[in-house]
Amino acid sequence: MSQPLLDVIDLRVxxxxxxxxxxxxxxxxxxEKLALVGESGSGKTVTALSLLRLVQGASxxxxxxFDGPEGQCNLLSLPERALxxxxxxxxxxxxxxxxxxxxxxxTIGDQIAEVVQxxxxxxxxxxxxxxxxxxxDTGIAEPERRARAFPHQLSGGQRQxxxxxxxxxxxxxxxxxxxxxxxxxxxxRGQILDLLSELQQRTGxxxxxxxxxxxxxxxxxxxIAVMENGHLVEQGTVEDVFAKPEHPYTRKLIDxxxxxxxxxxxxxxxxxxVLQANHLRVxxxxxxxxxxxxxxxxxxxxxxxxxFTVPPGKTLGIVGESGSGKxxxxxxxxxxxxxxxxxxxxxxxxSRQAASNKALRRAVQVVFQDPFSSLSPRMTVEAIVEExxxxxxxxxxxxxxxxxVEQSLEDVGMTEAQFPGLLRRYPHEFSGGQRQxLAIxxxxxxxxALLVLDEPTSALDVTIQKQVLTLLQRLQRERGLSYxxxxxxxxxxxxxxxxxxxxxxxxxxxxxxxxxxxxxxRHPYTQILVAQD
Length: 533
Hints:
By secondary structure, this protein is of the alpha/beta class. It folds into 3 domains: 6-90 and 174-254, Rossmann fold (3-Layer(aba) Sandwich), CATH 3.40.50.300; 105-171, no CATH class; 311-531, Rossmann fold. 44% of the residues are buried.
């Protein structure tokens, strides 16, 4: 074997004396793609960051021998000045969330040009042209115009491509990619993956991919290393590990695919629909450019002529890429956006008068994508869960409210026995999956008929995702709940939905039962989505 590009020996990382990475060993060959896989808290991101000593307040020991421009060097013992020369030039990193990694005050072109100027010593004009070429190389249309755009003016996929362009500005030998596709739709995920593969083959760089997405690993990596609680529990080629996993934790990860466990959709619908829309249309006003903007406005139609029904106890899944209109449709269904056409929830239409919608607000509730941002960090668990009761059942006594809170928490699998002092705790004291259970308990306490689920598991690890989906399936069977499920994950649609509706550019391009649409897709766009699964 050739000398490895990076050889990590007995890497240990500790915070305040507590080890979170515990003596791990792995290597990456030149041009190789290694996937570091594990759940949140397994230590995979800390491992990648510690290689460049980017973890603040950490005690790092061991060796990370890198074949640098001046021969072998231990990254963990290099002087800071020498390490500064390697960061960005020989080892680059793509962070998980480009919106927080990119500076909102500078254009994309300026941020990429800055890297080129610092690392390659080019003049300002030359660096600007190099930035435009890098933007074009990553497949962003109209690179000269996009170079003048700020991060908030780009889509999620374009921001991620800009991050890749910045990382590849100096043709690094090793690319550290930390969850580079987690926040992206399935089509964009495939595009970014193909782009990374193409650039890797063209430049010959090695890639260390940090992810919890096993489908992505199958498609992208040569080898896989599995982390659990700071330990590397298994390594090998992707083919060998997926075919014959040896460690129980690896088998647990591979087996954590969403499983379908819902009532049959074949029974005839006899009750009135919980949510029904006919020729639903949602449009936003748009200012016209130039003098025309003084005399009139145009409009952007986000949802065009959508017709659908959500029967009692059933799930309608809506799938599509960013900008397809699925989130706008969900907001209209919640009565949060003006619309034209017909839309009825629980047999009633949304009113423009907020006070008259109180009963509907109780019948139609929502569970958001990120429970950490949707739950108030200043409220206790008891205050969060009982909030709906204070609005919709204000005559209940404190004792009655507490009993209802405890019952709702028990329904989602959280009890005082498991979590001592549960009602007095705050959201930051729980894991992502536990916070999502709290979000579900908060809406269940007022007995809604319909839940709008906005990407309820996309921010969760595969094992936690399976637990939350199993919980939602059980609640639907026991309570007869209806779900309007918004997601870009085809596996979640297969596990949860009875009917599915595919949206693109505001239009419903295909709809029908899950078997009809996903097993026999007719529209080319649906075929692309299913192929990415």
